[in-house]
């Protein structure tokens, strides 16, 4: 008779512990100091996925009654859903065009339009896997010819000229690009198209314009470069792992990738012309000669309405976006997603634009 | 419900007998009719969706599609070719192997070995395709690189093996090997079922004529099972045509039509292309992807109809013999 009773009390204690565990959790989340309450729905860029995850976790911890959803369904899908009125905000690797931003927005007050906010800067890197080579210098023209398949051998004089001290093997180059349409490809091809127009001979595009080896997603490219021989590819900097990263020629010197160098090119770039002052679509200047600027970056936007039909929604969006723009959030994203934090001067401009959301 | 006594003939069809219909009969017949209708409705709904969403892409001007300056047909041609090409290569490898395995299980292996082997083959069918994809890129593709380099060097004069060989092994031949492994269990299982059903009398008659084991198999099992082998292959082909994940992960695709199987540039398949490009597509590009889905739908329909026709023609020739 004793055993079942003991079992029951043991169960009861476990249950109490379990529920109190939950309660502690709830208390943590339900920090009453938070001022934001409600639900925000966002979707879009998969590049932002891990950054959005930490941003959302932190702001929900501070505001117990706030729920932010972000579905990394892809930039195109995000823009489309936002324009159709299904989302409060969208994430996208390319900005809404000026026409899209001013017209036909389902979720916004008619006639007020939307704004693009560059809140996620992800450096891209060129990775290589060559036997016996652990540092490589490239300029845009050489990179363009390699990825077009015009330079086929690693010991080509045009590569050797940039790397006088490297022992480049006489081996065929396998240049790996993305097989899926992607913002990473769009920014990489934009770099080649701007910095080496004569060699590249194509426009920036989501889909890689030439043939050659290709793989799915950042992880697919990393896998192909790692497992292949004498390979080269381009990926988000956070995915490069132990692979050799090529330094890019800017002006007269070779710039190795750093977060600061990536943020610098964004600050040094002009905004796209023909847009309102608070619509911060950046025309990244890939041809910059600014010392220490790294021109190969992906700028991903958060897109929000200028004016929401419901003032409560506007408050939530303002709250969330100004958190994302804050140095703490940018630093978190840098730590967990490998992005480059916004530079100080640029942060103020973004915050000004966010304050204008009504 | 009265069961007729054993030996007693069922009621002769002379007088009119009222069929007794109980609630169970009515419910069951409605469920059966409903199930039959539902599959047709579902198919019709898919077709209507595909056609309605495809129309804008079919009439879209030249240059609205990724990777080509031409019309929709220029866009879909390499994909349709790649779909059929990869599936055909896969079947070329899988069918002889599957027939061999099935024959081994049904006629050659001792019973103690045959049963576990059957289970293992069935287990292959339960592995999700994403796992095959992972296996393809991490194990199979790197392992094939030396083979492809050797082929390009020594057999490069043969158009299929023309170089330069891929440096990563992620070619249409690797994809075909992965697909072959994936369709193997379904073809093997069906072939085994058919082989086992070969009438014992036929087999013993063959022995009585002095046939050896192999001659017996050739004279009785294969003719009896031919339509079954074809049906099994067509089911496998259906899976290979529609396989998405493994192809998307393993293949290094380009928008080209090429019979070379060990190069870096390979024709992509329709299903893999949709999976790769849908997330970043908008507007007319989405319509274009759905339209390629319609083309895949038509290809599958044609393949299945041809298979049915072959099977039925063969059955008729058996009857007339």
UniProtKB/TrEMBL annotation, chain A:
Protein name (record): Phosphate-binding protein
Alphabetically ordered keywords of this record: Phosphate transport, Transport
The UniProt record lists the keyword rRNA processing: no
Positions annotated to bind phosphate: 45-47, 75, 93, 182-184
Family matches, as InterPro entries: ABC_phos-bd_PstS, PBP_domain, Phosphate-bind_PstS
Record Pfam families: PBP_like_2
Family of the protein in this entry: Belongs to the PstS family.
One cellular component term from this protein's GO annotations in UniProt: ATP-binding cassette (ABC) transporter complex
One GO process term, biological-process aspect: phosphate ion transmembrane transport
Domain PBP: 32-328
GO molecular function, one term: phosphate ion binding
Presence of keyword Cell membrane: no
Superkingdom per UniProt: Bacteria
From TrEMBL, chain B:
Entry keyword annotation includes NAD: no
Molecular-function GO terms, alphabetical: phosphate transmembrane transporter activity
Domain ABC transmembrane type-1: 80-307
Subcellular location as annotated: Cell membrane
Membrane topology: Multi-pass membrane protein
Keyword set, alphabetical order: Cell membrane, Membrane, Phosphate transport, Transmembrane, Transmembrane helix, Transport
Ranges that cross the membrane: 31-55, 75-105, 117-141, 171-191, 240-262, 282-311
GO annotation, biological process: phosphate ion transport
GO annotation, cellular component aspect: plasma membrane
PROSITE patterns: ABC_TM1
Main location: membrane
InterPro entries the UniProt entry points to: MetI-like, MetI-like_sf, Phosphate_PstC, Phosphate_Transport_Permease
Its biological purpose: Part of the binding-protein-dependent transport system for phosphate; probably responsible for the translocation of the substrate across the membrane.
Family classification: Belongs to the binding-protein-dependent transport system permease family. CysTW subfamily.
Protein name according to UniProt: Phosphate transport system permease protein
Organism: Microcella alkaliphila
């Amino acid at each position: 008779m004793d055993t079942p009773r003991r079992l029951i009390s043991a169960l009861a204690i476990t249950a109490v512990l379990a529920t109190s565990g939950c309660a502690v959790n709830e208390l943590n989340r339900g920090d009453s100091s938070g001022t934001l309450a409600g639900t925000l729905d966002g979707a879009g860029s998969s590049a932002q996925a891990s950054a959005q995850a930490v941003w959302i976790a932190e702001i929900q911890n501070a505001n117990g009654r706030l729920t932010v959803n972000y579905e990394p369904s892809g930039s195109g899908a995000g823009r489309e859903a936002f324009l159709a009125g299904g989302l409060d905000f969208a994430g996208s690797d390319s900005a809404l065009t000026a026409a899209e931003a001013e017209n036909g927005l389902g979720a916004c007050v008619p006639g007020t339009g939307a704004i693009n906010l560059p809140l996620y800067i992800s450096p891209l890197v060129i990775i290589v896997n060559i036997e016996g080579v652990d540092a490589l210098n490239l300029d845009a023209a050489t990179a363009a010819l390699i990825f077009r398949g015009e330079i086929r051998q690693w010991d080509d004089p045009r590569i050797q000229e940039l790397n006088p001290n490297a022992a480049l093997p006489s081996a065929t180059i396998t240049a790996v690009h993305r097989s899926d349409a992607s913002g990473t490809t769009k920014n990489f091809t934009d770099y080649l198209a701007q910095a080496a127009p004569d060699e590249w001979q194509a426009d920036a595009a989501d889909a890689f314009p030439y043939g050659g080896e290709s793989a799915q997603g950042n992880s697919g490219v990393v896998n192909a470069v790692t497992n292949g021989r004498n390979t080269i590819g381009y990926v988000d900097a956070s995915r490069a792992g132990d692979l050799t990263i090529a330094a890019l020629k800017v002006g007269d010197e070779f710039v190795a990738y750093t977060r600061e160098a990536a943020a610098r090119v964004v600050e040094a770039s002009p905004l796209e012309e023909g847009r309102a002052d608070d619509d911060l679509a950046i025309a990244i200047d890939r041809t910059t000669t600014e010392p220490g600027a790294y021109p190969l970056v992906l700028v991903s936007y958060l897109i929000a309405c200028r004016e929401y039909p419901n003032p409560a929604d506007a408050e939530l969006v303002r709250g969330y976006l100004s958190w994302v723009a804050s140095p703490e959030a940018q630093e978190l994203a840098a730590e967990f997603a490998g992005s480059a934090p916004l530079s100080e001067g640029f942060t103020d401009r973004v915050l000004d634009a966010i304050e204008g959301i009504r | 419900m009265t069961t007729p006594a054993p030996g007693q003939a069922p009621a002769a069809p002379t007088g009119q007998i009222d069929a007794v219909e109980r609630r169970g009969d009515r419910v069951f017949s409605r469920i059966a009719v409903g199930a039959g209708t539902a599959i047709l409705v579902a198919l019709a709904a898919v077709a209507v969706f595909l056609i309605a969403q495809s129309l804008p892409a079919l009439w879209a001007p030249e240059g609205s599609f990724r990777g080509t300056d031409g019309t929709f047909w220029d866009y879909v041609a390499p994909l349709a070719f790649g779909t059929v090409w990869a599936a055909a290569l896969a079947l070329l490898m899988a069918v002889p192997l599957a027939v061999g395995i099935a024959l081994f299980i049904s006629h050659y292996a001792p019973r103690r070995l045959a049963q576990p082997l059957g289970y293992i083959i069935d287990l292959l069918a339960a592995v999700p395709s994403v796992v095959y994809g992972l296996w393809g890129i991490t194990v199979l593709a790197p392992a094939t690189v030396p083979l492809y380099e050797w082929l390009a060097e020594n057999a490069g004069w043969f158009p299929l093996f023309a170089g330069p060989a891929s440096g990563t092994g992620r070619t249409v031949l690797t994809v075909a090997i992965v697909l072959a492994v994936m369709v193997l269990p379904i073809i093997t299982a069906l072939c085994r079922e058919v082989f086992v059903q070969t009438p014992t009398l036929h087999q013993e008659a063959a022995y009585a004529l002095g046939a050896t084991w192999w001659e017996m198999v050739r004279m009785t099992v294969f003719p009896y099972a031919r339509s079954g082998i074809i049906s099994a292959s067509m089911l496998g082909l259906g899976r290979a045509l529609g396989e998405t994940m493994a192809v998307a992960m393993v293949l290094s695709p380009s928008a080209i039509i090429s019979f070379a199987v060990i190069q870096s540039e390979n024709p992509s398949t329709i299903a893999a292309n949709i999976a790769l490009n849908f997330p970043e597509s908008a507007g007319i590009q989405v319509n274009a992807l759905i339209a390629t889905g319609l083309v895949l739908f038509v290809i599958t329909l044609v393949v299945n109809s041809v298979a049915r026709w072959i099977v039925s023609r063969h059955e008729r020739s058996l009857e007339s013999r």
